[in-house]
Design a protein that fits this description.
Layout (H helix, E strand, L loop, with lengths): L5 H11 L11 H12 L15 H11 L2 H21 L7 H14 L9 H5 L15 H20 L2 H22 L1 H6 L19 H10 L5 H14 L4 H7 L5 H18 L5
Helix pairs in contact: 1-5, 4-5, 7-8, 8-10, 8-11, 8-13, 10-11, 11-13
């Protein structure tokens, strides 16, 4: 039996539309397929029918019957599906309700949660004493990372905000890809791992920064606040194309540069085990 509290169930019921008896946009067939792929169980077995036969009632039965680990795994995958459906509707994903559900999942999975909900909170952290030697990367790669950090600091001092954003974004992607290639099983088995049309996980050289961020968070390599602001950095970095920058009227300033630099610093601290 999972340890989901009443209020925690309420958050998921509201987010997933369980009160109506449905769960997101699943049909009976896709619901059964989802549980087979995610948890290797038959959600339509009699084991999960004691509350009733609807998708919502079977979900409630599932989290009453199963362990925190299994429930956390399934709820993580459901959040990914919810996010996909939100994007299709062009609706916001990083809502307060979603973030609360992520924290609940982390509790079930035994992961530490950093709830840094505002930019000022995130920027207030001091990550100035970075120790690259704890990243477990080869000497050549470490030298390149150090060179980029030195260049980022110079760019910050000179007010070259756009350069800071591009350097931070590309360095972040390189570090997360390095972690992914060293932990292929964890990354490939994550529910947020990018898949092709045949639902097979794409080779890692095809993963985007967006996917690397999501999977690194799901697998516990980066915390919730880093995921949140890494996506902000990712959006900033997309303006490397001048036409897109012009069409969106994006004008980077010191503040956007500082957010980007803080994301990279926090990621290094987290990956090196020095996140306090």
């Amino acid at each position: 039996m999972s340890s989901l509290k009443t209020i925690e169930k309420k958050y998921f019921e509201d987010l997933l539309g369980v009160a109506s008896g449905y769960v997101l946009e699943f049909t009976n067939a896709t619901y059964a397929e989802f549980f087979r792929e995610t948890a290797n169980i038959d959600i339509y077995s009699t084991k999960y029918a004691f509350n009733g036969d609807s998708k919502g009632k079977r979900l409630r039965a599932f989290w009453e019957k199963e362990s925190d680990l299994l429930v956390g795994k399934v709820l993580t995958a459901l959040l990914e599906v919810w996010g996909y459906e939100q994007k299709k509707k062009k609706a916001p994903v990083n809502t307060p309700e979603f973030d609360e559900c992520v924290k609940i999942v982390h509790r079930l999975l035994g992961k530490t949660v950093y709830d840094e909900s505002t930019e000022s909170d995130f920027l207030s952290h001091d990550f100035s004493k970075l120790n690259l030697s704890l990243l477990n990367i080869d000497m050549q790669f470490e030298t390149i990372i150090q060179q980029r950090i030195d260049e980022i600091k110079k760019s910050l001092r000179s007010g070259a905000s756009l350069s800071v954003i591009f350097l931070c974004g590309s360095t972040l992607e390189g570090l997360l890809l390095d972690v992914a290639t060293k932990n292929p099983q964890q990354f490939n088995m994550a529910s947020s791992a990018p898949k092709d049309k045949e639902l097979k996980v794409k080779p890692m050289y095809e993963w985007t920064l967006d996917s690397l961020i999501n999977v690194a968070h799901e697998t516990g390599f980066i915390e919730l606040d880093i995921k949140k602001f890494s996506h902000v950095l990712k959006d900033f970095r997309n303006y490397i194309h001048p036409r897109q920058q012009a069409s969106q009227g994006f004008s980077p300033d010191k503040h956007t540069a500082e957010i980007s630099w803080k994301v990279l610093q926090a990621t290094i601290a987290s990956l090196s085990g020095e996140r306090k």
